[in-house]
Amino acid sequence: MTSGKPISKELIQKIREEVHKDKSKYQVSKKINLDRTTVYKYTKDLPNKYKRKPYISGKPLELLKQMIEKVYVYKEGNRNALRSLQKHFPSIRRSQYKNKSIYYLQDKNLEALQENYNF
After folding, report:
1. Predicted local confidence at residue 118, as pLDDT
2. Which of 24, 33, 60, 104 could bond 112 through an S-S bridge, CB–CB 3.0 to 4.6 Å?
3. How far apart are CA 74 and CA 30, in angstroms?
4. Contact by Cβ (8 Å): 72, 112
5. pLDDT above 90: percentage of residues in the chain
6. Is residue 116 within a helix (H) or strand (E), and if so which, with residue range?
7. What average pLDDT does this structure show over 65-82?
8. In this structure, how many other beta carbons lie within 10 angstroms of the beta carbon of residue 11?
9. pLDDT in tens, 17-50
10. E-strand spans in the chain?
11. How far apart are alpha carbons 50 and 90 in whole angstroms?
């Protein structure tokens, strides 16, 4: 791999053409024998071949399942996971009562309060 040397405009053009041909930036770096950071540097403005869609997994997924089954979820150490869920689902709301935070789906707020505080 080349290192530290300036690369020509022709090579930059070749890198960009390869990425436009639906090759991954990593594949292009291997094919042209350049460090992958060099390829990324000259193709920052081009989209990646593999673009991940947002997904929910791990702790946020478990909390979402619990929220659907039980109507609400306590904060209790789950603040980051619950905040990330709120990004995906703006209808998730938070209420606080007697220094306890509960998270629930917006259309289930009365039900969550009744179950949680036995009104």
Report:
1. 58
2. 104
3. 49
4. yes
5. 13
6. helix 109-117
7. 83
8. 15
9. 988 887 888 889 999 999 989 998 998 888 776 6
10. 72-74, 92-97, 100-105
11. 27
CB 81 within 8 A of CB 94: no
77, exposed or middle or buried, with CB in 10 Å at 0-12, 13-18, 19+? exposed
Beta bridge partners of 101: 96
Alpha carbon distance 32, 48 (integer Å): 18
Instruction: Tell me which of 52 and 95 has the higher pLDDT.
Output: 95
Residues 6+ apart with CB under 8 A from 117: 97
pTM more than 0.70: no
Domain boundaries, the chain: 1-50, 59-117
